[in-house]
Amino acid sequence: MPASYAYLGPEGTFTEVALRTLPEAATRELNPYVSVQSALDAVRTGEAEAAFVPIENSVEGGITTTLDELVAGEPLMIYREVLLSITFALLVRPGTKLADIKTVSAHPAAQPQVRNWLRAHLPDALWESAASNADAARLVQEGRYDAAFAGEFAAARYGLEALETGIHDAENAQTRFVLVGRPARPAAPTGADKTSVVLWQRDDHPGALRDLLGEFASRGINLMLLQSRPTGAGIGNYCFCVDAEGHISDRRMAETLMGLRRVCLQVRFLGSYPRADITPGEARPTLPGTSDEEFMAAADWVARCQDGRF
Amino acid sequence: MPASYAYLGPEGTFTEVALRTLPEAATRELNPYVSVQSALDAVRTGEAEAAFVPIENSVEGGITTTLDELVAGEPLMIYREVLLSITFALLVRPGTKLADIKTVSAHPAAQPQVRNWLRAHLPDALWESAASNADAARLVQEGRYDAAFAGEFAAARYGLEALETGIHDAENAQTRFVLVGRPARPAAPTGADKTSVVLWQRDDHPGALRDLLGEFASRGINLMLLQSRPTGAGIGNYCFCVDAEGHISDRRMAETLMGLRRVCLQVRFLGSYPRADITPGEARPTLPGTSDEEFMAAADWVARCQDGRF
C-alpha cells in the first residue's frame, strides 16, 4: 500500500494544517491535489493510501463537493476526522499599512467569515476571489493584490506579514476534515465514535423521512448531521448524508443499520470512526434500554421464550 | 402430564361447544370449573394440562377476568384459539308459547346481544340474570323462569325446546376462546399466527405509548388487539395486553419483542399460536423490508461492513 496521503491543496492551507495534527501524517508523504475530486480519485486508483479533505464547515454547513464524491462512485470509507478552528489573518507585503489596501483576496469560502470585519475596517476594498487562500497569499506576494485572508501560518511561506490576526465573524467557526480511504474493517470503538451513512429512500410516502429517522430514534441513536443531496434523478429526488453517534460494533447501531438497510432503497456505509469534538469521557450516556448489555439480555429473553423457558 | 382440560363451566355452554371443535379435546377428559380463575389455577397447580376460557367478545371486547389472570401470577401460555359465532336460542318448556313468557334468564353477557330482540318480541318480560346460560336453562326446566337465552345445543340436555333460534343483535357476533397451558416451546409457525404479550411501560412521558407502538410498526407488525388493564398501582397506571400478527420465530417479531423488552419496564410473553380467523393462504403479505430473508440479508450486510467488505 502506497504510504502517501493526498490532500486538498495547495500547500499552506487550513487543510494541510489540519492534516498535520494527525499522528499518522508524520510517517506519510503528503501530496497536495488541485481538487477534492482528484484527491479522492487518487485513493480510488490506488495512487494514495488515503485522502484528506474538508467535509463540513460550522458557518456554511456540509461541503457538497466532498459529500457528492462520497455518495457516488467506488465506495470509500472515512477513517478519521479532524476539527480545526478557523480564524483568518490579513496578510500583506512587509510595510503595507491598512490605509494602503485597495484589493483583498481569498477563497470564496472565506468571505462569509470576514465580511463583517471588512465592512468595519476596509469598507472600500475590492474583493477578488482566488482558487485557495494560499493562492491569494501568493498573488499578494507577486503584487497582484494588496492583501489576502489566509491562515497566519501562510505568512512565512509567502514572505508576507500579518497585519491583523484572529479575524472571524462567527465565534467558534470550525471546519471538519476527514481522512478517507478504501473500505476496510473500521477501527475498534473508542467510546466516542460516529458512524456515517448515505440513505436513499424506497419511496416518498408522507412521513417517509420521519419513518427513516425513527430507525435511529427507536434505538436511542442521536443524529449529528443530516444533509440532503440531490440524487441527480430530477427535482425533489434527494438522498441523505447522515452522521450518527456511535460505532457499527455497538448493538444499537448495528440494529439501526440493519433496519435502514431493510427499509431504504439503498444504504452506503461510510465508516465508524472516533469523534474529534469530544473525548470518550464526555460521551453522553446511552438511553435506558439501548446499551449493548440490554440488547444482549433482550435477545437472550426472546431465545428463552422461543424455547418455552420463561 | 394429566390428560385433562379444564374449562369454564358448566357443561352445555358456548365454551364447551368451542372446546369440542379442537381435535385434541377428543383425547382429553374435559372438566368444567366454576370460574375462569379456578380453571387457570388448575393448570398452575398441575391438576389440568390446559384450560379453555373465553378471552374476547366481538360485542363487549376483551374479557377482563381472563386477561387479568394471564397478566398476573405464575406465567401461562396460550396454545390455541377458537372463534365461535354466538347466536342464541330462546329455550322454553315444551308447549310454552311466546305470549306465556313473563320471565327470561341468561348470563349477563348475553343481554347486550338479545336486547333488541327482547324489545321487539317480549317488551314486558322481566330479565333475571343467571350464573351461566346453561344454568338459566336448568332454572327454566325447574319451572323457576319461563324462558332462557342459551345455545340451541342446550335444549336437549335440559328437556327444553327452542321457540326461536338465531337470535343475535350484532351481526357476526363472535367469542374468542383460548387454550392456556404452562410455558413450553411454541408450536411451529403455520404462516397465519398471532403473538400475545403484556407490556408495562417504563415511564409515562408524552408519546410513551406511541414509542411503544412504534416498536411494532417499524418492523411491519400489525396489531390485532390492544387492551389496557389497570396495574393495580393506582388510577392512571395501566399495562397493555397486545395481540400482534406473526410468530415469535419470525425475524420481525423476534426483533420487535427484543425492542419491547429493552424499552418496557416488563414484558410478559403469552405465546405464539395459529390464528383462528384466517388460514395461512389468507395472511396479508409482509411489508417491504420485513421478510425473514430481508432481515437476514440486512444482518449479513452489516456484518460485511463491520469486516470492511463493502
How would you sum up this structure, described in words?
Two copies of one chain form a homodimer. Chain A is of the alpha/beta class and 310 residues long. Chain A folds into three domains: 1-86 and 173-184, D-Maltodextrin-Binding Protein, domain 2; 88-167, 3-Layer(aba) Sandwich (D-Maltodextrin-Binding Protein, domain 2); 193-310, Alpha-Beta Plaits. The first copy, chain A, is 28% helix and 31% strand. Chain A is built from nine helices and 15 strands. The first copy, chain A, has helices at residues 14-19, 36-44, 64-71, 111-121, 133-141, 154-157, 208-217, 251-263, 292-307, and strands at 4-8, 29-33, 50-57, 61-62, 77-85, 88-92, 103-106, 126-129, 147-150, 161-167, 174-181, 193-201, 223-230, 238-245, 264-274. In chain A, strands 1, 2, 3, 4, 5 and 11 form a six-stranded mixed β-sheet that branches. Chain A is elongated and about 85 Å long. The first copy, chain A, starts with a strand and ends with a helix. The interface between A and B is large, with 39 and 39 residues.
